[in-house]
Structures are given as structure tokens and as C-alpha cells.
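Onboarding guide, step 5: your first structure request.
Type a short instruction followed by the sequence, for example:

Predict the 3D structure of this protein.
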Amino acid sequence: MDFKQFLINKIILFFMLTTLITIAIFLIGSVYDGDASFGYEAFLSPLIFAGACVLPTFVTYSKRELRLKEFLVRLVIEFLLIEGVVIAIACASSTIDTGRVEIVLALAASVLVIYVMVCAFAWLKASVEARKLNEDLIRYQGLQKRGEQ
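The system replies with C-alpha cells like these:
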């Protein structure tokens, strides 16, 4: 994959993460601090988390095709970096009570769930693209065979 397409995928990832993080914040906030109220600056929180979570995903970029083991190691590193970034931002925030273990565990669990969901969406997208590419290739090969006869 060239770097331009990689960056486009990261922009798509940013918006997907923003949506999923907003849902996670709503769910965690409703369970642990349902009566809290925030100002307009709270709308920036999902954007900050999403932007910070996209940065560690650059670990998986490679100009060459990675072997499965290399790719899996990079995914594990990526996931651990994302967990670290989210926990660090949460600890630095005055609005998230990271003194409560259950909130930190809920954050960590939400990162895992969101990570798995994003991986599943990426796999589905790649699967659809591969199917389309295969169909186009079969169609092209059919045209080539007809042209040879």
C-alpha cells in the first residue's frame, strides 16, 4: 500500500474512532457518572482521543508486504500503544476519575472492544475490495480469452 492510501485509511479511521469513542464515553459516563454535566469543551474529548489513537497505528505501515508474524507483532504493539495513550490522556484529564479502578478497567475494556470493532470493519472493507478486484480480474480474463479466439 502506498503512503497516500495509508493516510486516507487513517483519516477514515479517525472518523470511525470518533464515532465509536463518543458511544463509549456515553455508555461509560451513563453507568459511572450519569448525573454529570459538562461544557462545550467536552465535545472535543472524542476528537482528542481519536486523534491520539490514530498516531500509534502508523506502527503497522510498511512499504513491503509484512509476513504474518511481523504483522501480528505490529498489531500487538499498536494495541498496547493505544491502550497506553488512552489511559495517559484519561489520567491527565481532570474530568475522568481515574482514581476509581472500575473506570480505568472500563476504559481499557472499551479500547479493546473498539479496537476489535475497527479491525473487523477493516477486514470487511478489505474483503469487499478483494471480491470486487477478483470479479474484475475474472471479467478481464474472459475478455482476453474472447479476444484470442
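Each response can be followed by summary notes, for example: The longest helix spans residues 101-148.
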